[in-house]
Amino acid sequence: LKDVAISYYYLRKNQWHEDIENIEDHFEDMFSAKTWYTPYREHIENYKRIPDYPNIFYMTYESLMADKPNVTRKLAEFLGKPISDENLNQLLDHCKFEKMRGKWTS
Fold this sequence. Notes:
Layout: H1 2-15, H2 23-31, H3 40-48, H4 61-66, H5 68-78, H6 85-94, H7 97-105
């Protein structure tokens, strides 16, 4: 929750250029339903109640971080594009933060 709140603060401040005095004001906004996707706890509870639609692939950041190979393989299968072990390993290597950072900083 803390990570989401802080990331959302910087999104509002730096990308949406909202006039936010400080992070405490943002937290107050976030937990009193004064911003998009709030109140946050209700937003998450609504997500959990979404039925399983056959044409929507559901995953969470937490599940992806816990098991990138398995979640990635399930996504490929969902898209009708089964992936070999070799291609999966190449894809996971290509998506490493260190490799992606180098593409945008040079």
